[in-house]
Write a structure and sequence with these properties.
It is a single chain. This protein has two domains: about 120 residues, ATPase, nucleotide binding domain (Nucleotidyltransferase, domain 5, 2-Layer Sandwich), CATH 3.30.420; about 70 residues, ATPase, nucleotide binding domain (Nucleotidyltransferase, domain 5), CATH 3.30.420. It is built from six helices and eleven strands. With about 200 residues, it is an alpha/beta fold.
Length: about 200
């Protein structure tokens, strides 16, 4: 299995290149939301270090959200372009997957900051989401899931265990089906602020 995967859904930027034997991870913890400026150079770097070309990849993977609306669009557009140019399928991974697969939890609540004291939340058991993701306040999350460990890749307004989303992305890909580039779509749990303010 050979592939390229990118995550532009948050403040971080992750690019993975896997050549079947060697995994190259390019991870920027905080790229100041300059994904569109950095992503192609980081893709070139990862592929070069993995001794891999786009045409040699079996598929391309993108983190489809939730997270930064603009970042998600950048990642999906980049992966769709690579899929179409190389005639390869896509793989969709959620931000929740990247958190839940970062460590081997029996149970965990994966959290993504939604701003203004709110979070996107999805509970997992043994690597499988057990409920539909939701948009909720920190109080609602703590009331509903207070017995479950909380985890996030970036700061959220409550106590949580911080994880490296790059590690989760690598593990999550193994469990995801291949889809067409056209079927690769964003996971939006709520409308963007611009849409809500119209």
């Amino acid at each position: 299995m050979k592939y390229l995967a990118i995550d532009t859904s948050g403040k971080h930027l992750t690019v993975l290149a896997y050549n079947g034997e060697r995994l190259i991870t390019v991870y920027e913890r905080d790229c100041a939301l300059k994904h569109s400026v950095l992503v192609m150079d980081k893709i070139d770097e990862a592929l070069s270090r993995a001794n891999l070309t786009p045409n040699e990849c079996d598929f391309f993977a993108a983190v489809v959200g939730p997270g930064s609306f603009t970042g998600i669009r950048i990642g999906i557009a980049t992966v769709k372009g690579l899929c179409m140019a190389c005639g390869k399928p896509a793989v969709a991974v959620t931000s929740f997957d990247c958190i839940a697969y970062a460590k081997e939890w029996e149970r965990v609540l994966a959290l993504v900051d939604a701003g203004h004291g709110y979070v996107y939340a999805c509970p997992y058991e043994k690597g499988v989401p057990v409920k539909t993701p939701c948009y909720c306040s920190k109080e609602e999350a703590q009331t509903a899931y207070g017995e479950v460990p909380f985890a996030a890749a970036e700061p959220v307004p409550m106590q949580y265990e911080e994880v490296n989303p790059a590690e989760g992305l690598f593990r999550a890909i193994e469990n995801k089906p291949k889809i067409s580039a056209e079927a690769l779509t964003a996971l939006y749990i709520r409308r963007s602020s611009a849409e809500e303010n119209r």
